[in-house]
Design a protein that fits this description.
heterodimer, A: mainly alpha, elongated
Chain lengths: ~100, ~650
């Protein structure tokens, strides 16, 4: 059996990758994908603990997160499309005004 | 105690007059204003006369409860009026002399722009003064006490566009506050120890106490504090400085408030509290000493004044000193007697001086008068009578009351008597000096003169005044009536009638009073002393005649030979300057540097301004966080998350 620490390490690496991508990347789509990466990093740690301790609640929680992430993706992509239509760019540094 | 349902009318009638004139006077004709002011004041006098007619010593004192006021636990102070022999005398003096002066004011102030304002204030003053006199408890009396102070302030500063008048009003008000402070503390002591401010209840509580021999204790403290209040209101050392300045007000005001009535309120209050004072010999002694010193001190200043009203002002202070001397030696009825006669002749002196000032176009400097006897014979005659009265020449009113005081003072100590006689000599001298300078010799003013800066607001301004002229009948009438009173007013004291009349009020006979009444049996001594005081009065007259009529060049030479002393007297012993250095300047400097600059600007303003500055400074820096840049927001979130995680890890390690 693979020890728990391996899963947690992978989970941490995924999360840090997400954070760094979120901070460094300028493209909104990439940033959005980084957010998904962070979410899934966390999900991984949830299921790892659930498997380790034989507790179902961790896995149930992951389903909730995935549902919310899906909803978020729907709204987020819609926003991104709206932003692109008005600004004709996906560079977040150009999107620094709340008003149009 | 008998109820008397008319008592409340006396003070409230002038209040109604004041209200009507104050609210509607601006749009009324001067005739209507005069009618309102005189009718309401005269009605008060008429009611007072009716009350006096019904007055019987058997059923006195009378009282009337108008309304509830303060009720807290067992303590209560109501709007209640109280009338005994003492307040009856005051009532008649205030309404009578007040009414005469109201009549006079109609003539004197007729041409003034603020006529309605003046009349309204005068009526207001009458209301407060009558409240003071008729109150049944100290707190209600204090309302009147403060109210007359207010009216005095308003009327001194009546010509408020003139800086000196406005300043004099403020000075009077502030100096009086110092006295009122003492009065208030005395009231607090009474509440604490007697649980009441009602005259009858306080005196009933004091009556069984024995005199405080050690010169310390509750009654002495109350007595001294009451004297502080009286010294403020009645212009005694050390709080007399406001009264000479108060002459900035119109002359009828000087006559009514600063000679006849308000300034005697202190004497009235001390006499009213006689039960307390008689059980505090130390306080009595202080009253007597202050009165005696003030009498002499003010009289000496009066010698060298050249402003006709200032002479009379110092004379008033000096005469008030006599009254306090009388109260201090336990001769309260003599003090009240002198209060009454003084109201007649000093009111008359001021009104006559006003007539002179009116007649020569606002000039107050006696050096520019002279020879007015031919121009204004009535004024001369009446003022002459008043002068004889104040100098103590028999049989005029002042002789009776002053002699009574000196006789009682002699019973207490010959020192009081001696100073009193010296003061009587000086009084006689400066009053006849005033007469000779004003009415004797030749007219020294320019016949067609420019308006002078004193009392020109209203008449003769800038237009030259022409020859001196006699005043109109409306002004002469009161002069004549007061002159008659100055002649006959003293006879009420004949055979100690006045004293017997007041005796029930001052029943709590003290050791001091008994002593004097024992000596009063020695009539040879009494006549001897009387002869001495009359002869010094005549001497003063002769000296004034010599210096200011026969050899008018002499005073200058005497003044030159006594240069230092003369300068000190002319400058009123530099007391105003001394007070300025000792009290006024430290207060102003302290307020400016400590209170204003250090505390107000340095602490309060600084706290407000600095906190605003700090908020702006912080937000100036913090607002850069909100750049609108999405990635910098993300950075802040990440940094915040990192801090939270670091904190939790650190906490976990611990």
């Amino acid at each position: 059996m693979i020890p728990l620490s391996y899963y947690l390490l992978l989970s941490g690496i995924l999360f840090v990758c997400g954070v760094l991508g979120f901070l460094i990347k300028r493209n909104i789509i990439t940033i959005f994908m980084s957010i998904e990466l962070m979410l899934n990093g966390v999900n991984l740690s949830f299921v790892a603990f659930a498997a380790q301790w034989h507790a179902l609640s961790g896995q149930v929680f992951v389903f909730f997160v995935m549902v919310v992430a899906a909803a978020e993706a729907a709204v987020g992509l819609a926003i991104i499309i709206a932003v692109y239509r008005t600004r004709e760019t996906l560079n977040v540094d150009r999107v620094n005004l709340l008003k149009l | 105690m008998t109820p008397n349902p008319y008592l409340w009318l006396v003070p409230l009638l002038p209040l109604a007059g004041a209200a009507i004139n104050g609210f509607f006077g601006r749009r009324s004709s001067k005739k209507a204003i005069s009618t309102v002011a005189l009718v309401f004041c005269g009605a008060a006098f008429a009611v007072a006369l009716l009350i006096a007619w019904d007055f019987s010593s058997a059923s006195a004192p009378y009282y009337f409860d108008l309304a509830h006021w303060l009720r807290s636990g067992s303590f209560q102070a109501d709007f209640s009026f109280y009338l005994d022999q003492l307040s009856l005398v005051m009532l008649l003096v205030v309404t009578g002399v007040g009414f005469l002066i109201h009549i006079y004011s109609v003539g004197y102030m007729w041409d003034d722009d603020g006529y309605y304002r003046f009349m309204s204030y005068m009526n207001l003053f009458m209301f407060f003064m009558l409240t003071l006199v008729l109150a049944k408890n100290y707190l209600f009396m204090f309302i009147g006490w403060e109210g007359v102070g207010l009216a005095s302030y308003l009327l001194i500063g009546y010509w408020f566009t003139k800086d000196s008048a406005a300043a004099a009003g403020k000075k009077a008000f502030i100096v009086n506050r110092i006295g009122d402070f003492g009065f208030l503390i005395a009231l607090f002591l009474m509440i604490k120890h007697f649980g009441s401010l009602d005259f009858t209840r306080v005196f009933a509580a004091v009556q069984p106490l024995s005199p405080e021999t050690a010169g310390s204790g509750l009654l002495t403290a109350i007595g001294l504090l009451l004297m502080v209040g009286a010294a403020g209101k009645s212009a005694q050392i050390p709080l007399y400085v406001w009264l000479p300045d108060a002459m900035e007000g119109p002359t009828p005001v000087s006559a009514l408030i600063h000679a006849a009535t308000m300034v005697t309120a202190g004497v009235y209050m001390v006499a009213r509290s006689s039960v307390i004072f008689e059980r505090a010999p130390m306080a009595m002694m202080v009253v007597a000493i202050i009165g005696t010193l003030t009498a002499l001190f003010a009289a000496t200043i009066g010698i060298a004044q050249t402003d006709i009203k200032k002479v009379l002002a110092y004379s008033t202070i000096s005469q008030l000193g006599y009254m306090f001397m009388a109260c201090g030696v336990g001769a309260f009825s003599a003090g009240i007697f002198h209060l009454m006669t003084h109201a007649f002749f000093k009111g008359l002196l001021f009104l006559a001086a006003g007539s002179v000032i009116h007649g020569i176009g606002g000039e107050q400097d006696m050096r520019k008068m002279g020879g007015l006897r031919t121009y204004m014979p009535w004024t001369f005659a009446t003022m002459g009578i008043a002068t004889l009265a104040i100098a103590g020449i028999p049989p005029f009113a002042g002789f009776w009351s002053k002699d009574e005081i000196l006789w009682k003072a002699f019973g207490a100590s010959w020192v009081y008597w001696l100073i009193g006689v010296i003061t009587a000599f000086i009084t006689s001298f400066y009053m006849f000096r005033l007469m000779y300078m004003t009415f004797g010799g030749d007219y020294r003013g320019a016949v067609v003169q420019q308006a002078h800066g004193h009392e020109v607001y209203g008449h003769g301004q800038g237009t030259g005044h022409g020859e001196p002229h006699e005043s109109p009948g409306v002004m002469l009438g009161p002069l004549v009536i007061l002159a008659v009173l100055s002649v006959v007013g003293g006879f009420v004291g004949y055979g100690n009638q006045f004293e017997h009349f007041l005796a029930p009020v001052f029943q709590g006979a003290s050791a001091v009073a008994q002593e004097t009444s024992r000596e009063a049996g020695d009539s040879t001594l009494e006549y001897l002393l009387m002869a001495v005081s009359v002869s010094v009065a005549v001497l003063g007259w002769l000296l004034a005649h010599l210096l200011y009529s026969r050899r008018p060049e002499l005073p200058k030479r005497i003044a030159a030979s006594l240069d230092g002393l003369y300068q000190a007297v002319v400058n009123k012993y530099y007391i105003d300057e001394l007070y300025a250095v000792l009290f006024v300047k430290p207060v102003i400097d302290g307020s400016t540097t400590i209170l204003w600059h250090d505390i107000d600007q340095g602490v309060i303003d600084a706290a407000v301004n600095d906190s605003a500055d700090a908020a702006r400074h912080v937000s100036d820096n913090v607002r850069h966080m909100q750049s609108g840049n999405l990635r910098s927001y993300a950075g802040w979130i990440a940094a915040g998350g990192a801090v939270v995680i670091a904190y939790m890890v650190w906490m976990g390690v611990r």
